[in-house]
């Protein structure tokens, strides 16, 4: 990331956790100085309506209170109506900022980390260490177990008071294929053994990663 010049043009993605800053339901577009972003660290992560999309680095809570100008942030989920490519771009920005925010210090020696120039990664500034790490991707599955016109739903412990029933889902464990994850998760949660015939679709971002 680099400091933003006053006249830098584009669309601006400001995040706060999984929330984003919108003006009348849309990303702010225009010059950096129009939104008090001069000097903030940012990087271009794609194109938005034909213009560069700039991801602005998240600030510490104290800095945000002093400099954020009372901005109100909205859940990323509010943008589910967008075309998938645009939503996934916003989601990518949120995930990048989360990665940078949670990897400011080296997990091996405790020194400060800095972004690398040649790829999306951070590297330890301690030359004796030099540890480099990358954004963590957590593949998961969600599966509909069907029998004829019936579908299996589960009432998980965390939703018992709400009486909420959902399809089964879970994260892929190290060394597993997606098919093995489906079979393990279904068996762990219901005691049912299932057979998978084919992967029907794969998706990123707002949609289930796999549809069976």
UniProtKB/TrEMBL annotation:
The EC class name is: hydrolase
For the keyword Metal-binding, the answer is: yes
GO MF terms, alphabetically ordered: metal ion binding; NADH pyrophosphatase activity; RNA NAD-cap (NMN-forming) hydrolase activity
Give the matching Gene3D superfamilies. 3.90.79.20, Nucleoside Triphosphate Pyrophosphohydrolase (3.90.79.10)
Q: Which cofactor does it need?
A: Mg(2+); Zn(2+)
**InterPro entries for this protein:** NAD-cap_RNA_hydrolase_NudC, NUDIX_hydrolase-like_dom_sf, NUDIX_hydrolase_CS, NUDIX_hydrolase_dom, Znr_NADH_PPase
A GO BP annotation: NADP+ catabolic process
Q: Where is the Nudix hydrolase domain?
A: 135-212
Its keywords, alphabetically, are:
Hydrolase, Magnesium, Metal-binding
EC number(s) recorded for this UniProt protein: 3.6.1.22
Reactions it catalyzes: a 5'-end NAD(+)-phospho-ribonucleoside in mRNA + H2O = a 5'-end phospho-adenosine-phospho-ribonucleoside in mRNA + beta-nicotinamide D-ribonucleotide + 2 H(+)
Q: Which SUPFAM superfamilies match?
A: Nudix
Q: Which domain of life is it from?
A: Bacteria
Per the record, GO CC terms? cytosol
PROSITE patterns assigned to the protein according to its UniProt record, in alphabetical order? NUDIX, NUDIX_BOX
Q: Which Pfam families match?
A: NUDIX, Zn_ribbon_NUD
**What NCBIfam families does the record point to?**
PRK00241.1 (NF001299)
Name the family.
Belongs to the Nudix hydrolase family. NudC subfamily.
Q: What is this protein called?
A: NADH pyrophosphatase
